[in-house]
């Protein structure tokens, strides 16, 4: 693969993985609401602290992925 063509497959793979993780997360969230809410009442707004913890987790994941690009490639 040439030096200029390696990014496109990386973007496509990243988008597919991100979409798959998003769909799985939404499914698991909806399933846990169904199992834990009486009479299938829709959930309320998440607490600010929960959103903050989730955002920090996502940032840590993104940083870990970006750190993969800083490693020396042995050829």
Task: Walk me through the structure.
By secondary structure, this protein is mainly alpha-helical. The protein contains 2 helices and no strands. It is elongated, with a radius of gyration of 18 Å. The two termini are 15 Å apart.
Topology:
Elements: H1 7-36, H2 48-68
Can you describe this structure in just a few lines?
This protein has 75 residues and is an all-alpha fold. The chain contains two helices and no strands.
Terminal CA distance reads 15 Å
Give the topology string: H per helix, E per strand. HH
In helices, the fraction of residues equals 55-70%
**Count of DSSP-assigned helices:** 2
Uncertain segments are: none
Q: How much of the polypeptide forms β-strand, as a percent range?
A: under 5%
The geometry reads as elongated
Largest sheet: none
What gyration radius follows from the Cα positions, in whole Å? 18 Å
Number of domains: 1
Structural class comes to mainly alpha
The overall average pLDDT, rounded, is 88
Report the count of strand segments: 0
Question: What are the main properties of this structure?
Answer:
single chain; 75 residues; mainly alpha; 2 helices; 68% helix
């Amino acid at each position: 693969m040439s030096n200029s063509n390696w990014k496109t497959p990386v973007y496509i793979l990243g988008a597919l993985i991100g979409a798959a993780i998003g769909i799985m997360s939404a499914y698991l969230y909806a399933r846990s609401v169904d199992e834990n809410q009486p009479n299938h009442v829709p959930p309320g707004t998440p607490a600010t602290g929960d959103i903050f913890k989730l955002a920090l987790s996502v940032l840590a994941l993104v940083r870990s992925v970006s750190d993969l690009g800083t490693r020396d490639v042995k050829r």
